[in-house]
Design a protein that fits this description.
Blueprint: H1 8-29, H2 35-43, H3 45-56, H4 61-66, H5 70-96
């Protein structure tokens, strides 16, 4: 592949998913997940920033994914693995508590 599109927008979407998942895990660790926590998560500065970044270029992600080089696949896989590891670690800590 020619790698013309890059992967910036796709990374921002994955990071948004990580922020949401991390916030949910933190709420599970405290008093459990409540409906009111959704408002707290959505209004948090971290979520707002990542949401704005992700939505600003989300339309470009299909073209980015069609144009992936082998190195970009590895970069995305590494980011997804790192994000998933953090989520699983947080859930494991929640269960142990």
């Amino acid at each position: 592949m020619s790698e013309k599109a890059g992967i910036k927008e796709t990374i921002e979407v994955i990071e948004l998913i990580g922020v949401v998942a991390g916030a949910i895990v933190r709420e599970l660790q405290s008093e459990g997940l409540q409906l009111s926590d959704a408002v707290k998560i959505v209004m948090s500065p971290g979520f707002q920033t990542k949401l704005a970044e992700a939505l600003s270029g989300i339309g470009s992600t299909p073209n980015e994914l069609k144009d992936l080089s082998k190195f970009e696949v590895l970069d995305l896989a590494e980011l997804i693995l790192k994000t998933a590891r953090g989520i699983v670690q947080g859930l494991t800590e929640t269960r142990a508590a």
